[in-house]
Amino acid sequence: AFNKISQLTNEEKERGVIACSAGNHAQGVALSSHLLGIKSKIVMPTSAPQAKVDATRGYGSEVILYGDTFDDAKAKCEEIIKETGETYLHPYDDVEVMAG
């Protein structure tokens, strides 16, 4: 996540980033955003482990708990992106995210 976030344009950085995850990607985005001073929002299913939710919040991300499954959270994430224009950080289908 750090690699992708560090390559954002100034305009994208200003809008912030958003991701959906049940835990590990959420924490990577949250920590990377914190280190780079960029606001982040993470949509997590209500079934996400509380320890992962707490860790994600602990890095300063806004956490939105929504739905029972990852697919529910992803659908909510897509709704939010349409409203806010935040940059979406896909948890597994983005080479720049996978690079680190």
TrEMBL record:
Q: Which cofactor does it need?
A: pyridoxal 5'-phosphate
Q: Which reaction does it catalyse?
A: L-threonine = 2-oxobutanoate + NH4(+)
Q: Which GO terms describe its molecular function?
A: L-serine ammonia-lyase activity; threonine deaminase activity
Annotated EC = 4.3.1.19
UniProt keywords (A-Z) are: Lyase, Pyridoxal phosphate
A biological process (GO) of this protein is: L-serine catabolic process
Q: Which InterPro entries match?
A: Ser/Thr_Dehydratase, TrpB-like_PALP, TrpB-like_PALP_sf
Domain (Tryptophan synthase beta chain-like PALP): give its ranges: 1-100
Major enzyme class: lyase
Under the heading Gene3D superfamilies, the entry gives: 3.40.50.1100
Describe the function of this protein: Catalyzes the anaerobic formation of alpha-ketobutyrate and ammonia from threonine in a two-step reaction. The first step involved a dehydration of threonine and a production of enamine intermediates (aminocrotonate), which tautomerizes to its imine form (iminobutyrate). Both intermediates are unstable and short-lived. The second step is the nonenzymatic hydrolysis of the enamine/imine intermediates to form 2-ketobutyrate and free ammonia. In the low water environment of the cell, the second step is accelerated by RidA.
What PANTHER family does this protein map onto? L-THREONINE DEHYDRATASE CATABOLIC TDCB, THREONINE DEHYDRATASE, MITOCHONDRIAL-RELATED
The UniProt entry's sequence similarity note says:
Belongs to the serine/threonine dehydratase family.
Q: Know the name of this protein?
A: threonine ammonia-lyase
Protein source organism: Bacillus cereus
